[in-house]
Amino acid sequence: MRIGILGLGRIGAFHASTLAGLDAVDSLVVTDPVAAAAASAAERFGAKAVDSPEALFASGVDGIVIAAATDAHPSLILAAVRAGVPVFCEKPVARTVEESLDVLRAVEDSGVEVQIGYNRRFDAGCVAARKAVVSGELGPLHTVRSTTLDPAPPPAAYIAVSGGIFRDCSVHDFDIVRWVTGREVTEVYAAGGNRGAEFIAAAGDVDTASAVLTLDDGTLAVISNTRHNARGYDVRLELHGMKDSIAVGLEDRLPLRSVEPGVTFPAGTPHTFFMDRFADAYRAELTAFTEVVAGRSASPCTVADAVEASWIAEACTLSLAEHRPVRLEDVRKG
User: Fold this and answer.
1) Distance between CA atoms of 131 and 272, rounded to whole angstroms?
2) ∠174-177-178 over CA atoms, to 5°?
3) Of 83, 24, 58, residue with least CA distance to 50
4) For a Cys staple, 215 with which of 15, 94, 167, 183, CB 3.0–4.6 Å?
5) Residue 35: predicted pLDDT
6) What mean pLDDT is predicted for residues 175-196?
7) Average pLDDT for residues 259-269, to the nearest whole number?
8) What gap in Å lies between CA 189 and CA 196, rounded to an integer?
9) What is the pLDDT of residue 196?
10) Is the per-residue pLDDT at 146 higher than 80?
C-alpha cells in the first residue's frame, strides 16, 4: 500500500521511519510546509516528496497520516474523508472540543475510517492490563492510578498554544483510563501548581497537576502529571481490584529510585523520551492503521474516543480554575 504523510516535524519524521519499515507499506508520499523537511524525508526513506496536501491527495495514496500542526488537523481530516481515504491523525482532533465535535459530526456517517493517535492503547503493558480487567482476574476495581511525568517542559512557544496541561498532556491518561477500564468518567476534581518554568505560569497554565476522576461504577482514578521530572520520562498505570493489583511501567527503566536498604530495583537506565518509552507502541499503532487501510479492521481509536478524552480535559480545566468538582454532564451542556 501507498501511505501519505502530512507534516514532517519530530513525530512526522518518526512515523515516516516506522512506516518505511513495515512490510505492508510499499511506498510513501510526503509533504511539509518546509520544503527542506519533505526533501530530507524523501531522501532518508525513499519517499516521493510533493509540494502540497492537494498534490499528496492526487498522488493515489491508500491511506493518510496527519502529523501536521494541530490547527491543520480538522481541515486535513475532512479532506481525507472527502477523498474517501482512511486517515490516521495525531491527537488532538482539533484545538478545541467544539471544533472536534464539528469533525465528529462530519465523519461519523461518512463510511471512512479515522484513527486518532493515542499510542498507549498499543503499549504491551496497557494491552495486558486491559485483558486483566476484561477477564475479571482483578475483581471489581476500586482505584486506578495513571502517571505522566515529563523530564522537562516543552518550549515556551508550544506551551502558549497547547491549551493547558490537561488538554495537552493529561489527555493520554484520560484516554488510557477509559480504554483499560471500559468505564466512563462522571465527575472530576483537579488541582495544580507552578514550581518551575515561569513561562508556564505566564501562559496561564500549571506545570504540575493532579486530578481525581470518578468513574461510572464508583471506581476512583487518580491522575498525576508534571513538566519537571528530573530523573526521566515516567509513565505508569496501576489498577487495584478486590482480587489483585497490577502495574504497567514497573520495569528496570522506571525513572524512580528506591531508598530502601538493599533494594537495587530499578537497575536500568531511566527512560528520558516518549519516543524511546513507546517505540514499540508506535510501531504497533501504525501496523494497526495498515490493517484499517487494508479494510481488515475498524479504527481502534475513533474521533468519538478522542472527543471523550477532550471532555474530561475540559472538565479538569474548569475544575482547576474554579476550585470545585465538575460533573461531565454539566460540561457537555455548556
Assistant:
1) 28
2) 85
3) 58
4) 183
5) 93
6) 97
7) 96
8) 23
9) 87
10) yes
